[in-house]
Design goal:
36% of the residues lie in helices and 30% in strands. The protein is built from twelve helices and 19 strands. The radius of gyration is 21 Å and the shape is globular. It binds flavin-adenine dinucleotide.
Amino acid sequence: MRTTVGIIGAGPAGLLLARLLHRAGIDSVVLESRDRSYVEQRQRAGILEQGTVDVLRAAGAGERMEREGLRHDGIELRYDRKRHRVDFPALTGGRSVMVYAQTEVCKDLIALQLKEGGPLLFEAEALAVEGADGDSPSIRFRHEGREDVLECAYVVGCDGFWGVSRKAIPEALTRVFERTYPFGWLGILADVPPSHDELVYARHDRGFALLSMRSPSVSRLYLQVPEGTDAQSWGDERIWDELERRFETDDDWRLQRGPITQKSVTPMRSYVHEPMRHGRLFLAGDAAHIVPPTGAKGLNLAVGDVVTFARALTHEKETGSTELLDTYSETCLARVWQAERFSYDMTTLLHRAPDATPFEDRLQVARLERIASSEAAETDLAEGYTGFPFA
Ligand SMILES: Cc1cc2nc3c(=O)[nH]c(=O)nc-3n(C[C@H](O)[C@H](O)[C@H](O)COP(=O)(O)OP(=O)(O)OC[C@H]3O[C@@H](n4cnc5c(N)ncnc54)[C@H](O)[C@@H]3O)c2cc1C
């Protein structure tokens, strides 16, 4: 089997890359280790930055998102029983975000790929990337019980944090920057209309809480919990009671309860692998970097990487110059580090560390008061949240 771009992984990064390449007349093959329904049901991100929305529209993958996505013009910060709304368009010259679940982005891109694009093989597990530093890299993979080889001009590893592509970059050429946090997020899906029409980020002495949504009838809520917490150890009533306490206000706002349909715990990690390119192997999305979900950046960073790669390869095809491919890693990392900084700032602003001192508690509140009272501080948050520009 032979193709121009071998893509490992059919998450948002791999699927969007295949779509962008198809539109640019470049052929690709996508190998995905899981089956289609697993990929389409995996609950993860839900906030699309303005730039991601624009890219999906331009790629012809925005039709259902336009119909069913919820445009959000702000978020609410909640602390000390107070509420402060951050108005994105007013602070950023008109930018906003879209609530449209990662599951739906993946469903839309899979349907388009199967209808119009190149091969997308499910249950095809990449075993190794070989010859990345030569002229003809290849992917060894297993599909339908047989081992096969995909010969490529380029390989893009979109195989997430636990994939195989990163391992093909020699350790001696690699630097890893990492931080783990001593807490995670207990996330629930509940069949109840969201209790607020925008996301609510709450800082509380008992820990962080986030009110989010998947649709006008489905709420997504999160609670900060200690690292290693088992989701099943939290009963439904305990979850609602705890959410209620952390979202408390001085006015008559009330949290609506409903049946919980899903529960899981997500660990919190910051991670960057440098470089993001080795020879003809390029890393994109979670394969190269992880952010804690507080800033809603993971999916959006994956989009930025594949847009950068697709542009670079199109440039090479049109001009013969590899200049943009050669600077892929530096270009992506500049944006990645801004998102890492933003996600870290949001995480440390809103979560209570297990060993937090009263001094640190007061500092968090002072940082929130600063955002609520200074347009400069508030603009910084709004610009970061709605997204840093693609290169
Ligand atoms: C539990 C969880 C919750 C999250 N919640 C949020 C959130 O609320 N907000 C937010 O912004 N971000 C969130 N994220 C992050 C966001 O979902 C990711 O940043 C995003 O999925 C990155 O997309 P990706 O395509 O790079 O990687 P992935 O979505 O991880 O896709 C990688 C794909 O590669 C496949 N794969 C792996 N190994 C192989 C192999 N050897 N061969 C073939 N295929 C392989 C995997 O099956 C997968 O389909 C969350 C992540 C996790 C894990």
